[in-house]
Records
---
Amino acid sequence: MKRLVPAALGVLLVATVFAPLGLLLARSGGPGEWLEAWRSAESRHALLGTLVTSSGAAIVALALGLPFAWLIVRTDVVARRALKAVVTLPSAIPPYLWTMGWIALANPKSGWLTLLVGRDRLDVYGSAGIAFVLGTSALPLVVLATAAALERIDPALEEAARLSGANAWQTFRSVTLPLIAPAMLSGAALVFVFASASFGVPYLLGVPANPPAPTLTTRIYAEVLMGEAGLARAASSSVQLLLVAVGVLSINAWLARAGRVRLPRGKGLGGKVLQLGRSRGLVSALAWTTGALVILLPLGAVFLTGLQPTWGQWGSFTLKHWGVVLQPRTVAAAGVSVLLAAGAALLVGAIGLLIALTRRRWLETLADAPSAIPGTVLALALLVAFSRDLRFIAFERVAFVLALGNTVWLLLLSYVVKHLALGVRSASDALAQADPTLAEAARLSGAGPVRAFLDGVLPQVRGALVGAVLLTFLTCVSELTMSVLLIPTGGDVLGTLLFELQSYADPASAAVIASALLLIVLAALVVQNVAARRAEAR
Amino acid sequence: MAAVELVEIEKAFGATAVVKKLSLTVREGELVALLGPSGCGKTTTLRMIAGLERPDRGVVRLGGQVVDDGRAFVAPERRGLGMVFQSYAIWPHKSVFENVAYPLQLKGASNVEAAVKEALGWVRLEAFVQRRPHELSGGQLQRVALARALVGQPKVLLLDEPLSNLDVALREELRGEIASLRAKLGTTMILVTHDQAEALALADQVAVMNKGVIEQLAAPDVVYREPATPFVAGFVGGANVLVGEVQGTSFISEGVSFALPAETVAPPGPHTLVVRSEDVVLGAEGPLLPLQARLFMGSATEYRLGIGNSVLRAVGSERLEAQPGQGTSVSFRAVRLYAR
């Protein structure tokens, strides 16, 4: 048992993730073909598009994230907790929802903001728009990393600088900033990887742009649509995308190790906040306006779009589009999404716990890796590997046929492996903190190993596990990137339905479904918050 | 001229008054220790001198100049002070050299390198110029902090519990270091500490603080020999404090009557009696108290006697025949009485 379980899990991961990735690599040809692809202007254009929009997103997230983190941790800005909740909201909401909002706000012809500043003065389509929307929807990555670093700095480090003759600004530049820089940059690297792997935003904003602004993900999608002929080229683009992600993550890991500065834990008067004094009103107004503009306004625009009689006609309202919620196609898509997301979330929790319980580093690393692989690449690998039925023959008589291609099971598989890291990490962190003596005490009280696990260990890791399951559910229920590639012909999930309505047919209906989705996510967040606060109060 | 002058400063955090109408004058070249238990307001007082905290009321003067009187405020970086923190506060992203050079670079001083070398020489760390902070021990880090605080030749050096993060041996070593630096540089210093041995050993004047006020400000030997209040006696000398009543030549506490030493005269009435543990005489005369424990401490032995619900401590070098559980007679060689 002790060896069988980890081995079986390892084989399963290799068969469902790494072997398909190998097949994808094989499909892309060799270095020769990659060079060939590099020579085509189109391919270079897409790679460049990914690099430019991802760097832009990282810069946007840094520029907005640092001031927000500083205001939230270090000052008495009005309604700090609420401001933090607002700027970290994007982590729970799929980026394409923001895109829909920004299209309504800043399309060059009839956007609400465009009309305020003048027709054609504002254009969300193109590389700049993609970078901006991706940057704001990845804002929490920078804000949370920076805020955590700011909270860990010993205030005496900054006070020592003041006593050495540095004014507030010099202290920030020469002490605070260098100390939080590693965390900030690592947050920015994650934004870069997140942006390079995004599909919905560059598709909705890049393809209709004039001139079009392709990225690797949108190019891969276009190539896959071409069928068998495009698959080899799509595979080659995937290799580039994978290299970008792995490259940035490796540089980040290396920097983190090379430039590691151990922050001594603050002892003195930790958590001392700067009194903004007379400028408090002005600073707060500025912070809240910015937060409202980049986070709340686009979400509001999505709601309003669903209430307008005609798209782009602001000022009058109707509920006629809300009928789409009850249409059989919507209901079916929602049903499939909820079932798939629930199944994926539970599997992530269960397999994550199982892997964490084996306490094998290699297995945890193996389960961790797929989360770093861009969804488009992972989906394409699964597509390549499982599009044909696989036959296994055992004992020369019994034949198993694995026919995953074109079924929702492949979708489920992709959701599970992509988010497995979340389950493993939550479970193994919780297990590391769990008190082993509780299980030992249960054994000594007469419980068998299973009973001791259920009574002694499980209650201690349940909270973390439930959090991971909830988060996986929320991410999967609106998943788009992998779903567009793996969805069975003629089927829908919420993400693909929204995507189709938004890009081809009916933006108003798309906005209605998006609004409904938003309401569900916000409700889930409120429930989670209340539960967390209650747990804290106990 | 006074190097530091505090006039009736007050500070409250929320509803809690931390410093109450506190006045203190520190003369140039003097080392004053602010001594007291945690929460007595000593660190807050120091931080108000530094400008890291602002008093609600009162005036802070440095070298005769007002640096904070509620309206005028001189920022900490412009007060010309040096400060050493309990947590060392050595910048982890800078080398030892960069840490010590920082105050000079901000001043735009010339010959930074020579000055840094000299300052590191004061704390015997010349060989560590190029080290990174994570390669140093706690004692070395605190010596770097001393060099950094002194390199700019501050008018006053503020020391906030500088030794309490160190183990006993290092603490004594660094205590000597501070004393010899002071002898060499003549810098005015204010030391915040909760360790009475540290305060008595280093200071010219000890300000014993309790609940936001200075209970006594005097030379160390005076504070030790002539404590102004029972709190000072209890905190500094570790003396026994008994609450009771003077009747004639006796002191009655917890229903036990002790004879007062001949030279002690006090009017009858409620008093607090303070007696050092080395002034408690056992086995000679006086009332019998039960011996609860005997603690051998090397050069002396501590005896704990029960009186009511509290404990009377006696320290002596001579062996006592009584065993724990038995009664032994108790008398006082010298006491101090405070009217209640």
---
Amino acid sequence: MAVAWVRTHGSLSSHPVKEGIGRGDGVPVMFQGKRLKVREVFSRLHIPEELVSFVAINGVKSAKDAWVIDGDKVTIFALVAGG
Amino acid sequence: MSYKRKVLRVNLTTGSVATEPLNEAWTEKYYGGRGLGVKYLYEELKEGVAPLSKENKLILATGPLTGTIVPCSGKLAIITKSPATGGILDCSIGGRFAAQLKFAGYDMLIIEGQAKAPAYLVIDNEKVEIRDASQLWGKGIFETESQLHGEHGVATSVLSIGPAGENLVSFACIGSEYYRQAGRGGVGSVMGSKKLKAIVCSGSTGVAVPDMSRLLELTKKLIKEDVLTDTNLWAYTEGTSTIVDMSNSAGILPTRNYQDGVFEGAAKINADSIQKLQPKKKACFSCALGCGNYSDIKGNAVEGPEYETLALAGSNCGVDDLGAIIKFNADCDDLGLDTISTGNVLGFAMEMTEKGIKDFGVQFGDIETYSKIPRLVAQLKGVGEELSQGVKKLAKKYGTTDFAMEVKGLELPGYDPRGSWGMGLAYATANRGGCHMSAWPIAEEAFGDVDPFTIEGKAQMVINAQNYNAIKFSLILCDFWALSMETMSEIMSCVFGRDVPVAELEKAGERIWTLLRLFNVREGFRVADDYIPGRFLKEPLKSGTPAGKLFPPEKFNSMLREYYQIRGWDDSGVPTPEKLKELDM
């Protein structure tokens, strides 16, 4: 079984926390096979895609249809305004 | 109508205090805040007035929603001619001052002239006094505010400057409630040039609206369905510090004076690091979001640090020590320095030192010297005297304009446009100079799905955002509430007691933006002033997603030409007579 570690930020930070999974290294998302689409990660965590600004895999901005592999750290950023 | 229909005018040269009717014909076109304040300044200021002379004016403007229960409507607009750019300057500041000014019975306060000796202004409803501030002169903002609260009561609101404003530092700010600032463009030095240390305000009247029951129902609905939603709650949960990781992941986090866009120490200064300090929450008057993160680390209390401070005073200076950044932030707040410009100037000085062009005695990541800089700048001591002039003047002196990270004399905030070309156009065309508050295409490009490395559609994207923010900041609604024009229309219709359609607001937004441009055109600004720093056009980014990318000059010029065409401006960047007629100007 492969695992990716997923963190959420901004207004999305409440989603995993609400489920009692906590923060730290993030939420483990387990998957069969070698890879998993980022969009599937959204689906597993019940995160509406329209609330996602962008995703970083191992600290680098990545497309929402990119692949996640075993050991990847996925960060999901919520929409923000201003600066 | 929610206006008080009254302007308070104070002349510090003569000591006169007078009230006059608000120009209500102008409120129909410019509403309040940025729009109405700039209209007054445009009409009252002659071309060529020196920003730090007694002829310049400082305008404090409320908006039509100020003092009402409309959410996120608590900010104050401050308008003047900028000593940093020589052009128009409008800032906003959170807290309670705007509501107090309205409750005291005024839509706007216009400050003219120059006091002979340090003074402060006390506004208590109709009673307005100019008082001696010699005992306060030289003190920091924290002590000034404490003393004035002690004398006039904690329920009053205070705006004040620190030593930086008194000493006319080109990037001095105005502070309120200790940790809130009207930060940019040297607004604090304009106040200092008038020898005005502080303004204390309290009011006890109400604000009338045509149908209070309707406004109450609308407000309840807005707070539940439009404000406290996933789109805005990032401001409450983590605040702007969340943008550190976003910018770093997108490769646009200013690092070592914009030499790179990825900072190896980002994880030490990001939202997670700040949340470990367990900050308390603070909010402005009438705000349901409460974006303020109040932290206290080893006696250095700050609200924040906000993203811009973490970027400019952190990664841009090669500093990854959160404690050092918090101290830097607290010192700037107390001394009355804009953290964006101070960090930017310091990054420039560090690069000058690194390259051996001029030894300012401070290196990237040198926390010990870095920590001393704000005080030296504010007090014009040592290297601080030279740094207090700002990046543009320093670069001109040493012939290093390519890595002077400024536009029109205003130091850039925390987004590298090589990874977001639309942001480059936004910087170049912002009327107050290198500014992120006029348009923020970062959200769509670097943080979104729009290709950051194309110019297609970007001119229109920037124009739409500039017009939207022009009206939003004239109604003085907070930047962090991502509301639609339709919602603005609904609010304004309720508060004005007449239909205020979206089309009217859209046209007003364009009119207000054009008026700001006209102010600058009158001061001689043209196409050559709509630039971005040479570094962005010549040096590719080194790391992250945009590694190898720069902003090709021909693309930038093409984008700017398209921007002028869509705006209805001529090739030199001047609005055409036809456009002015179309906008009823």
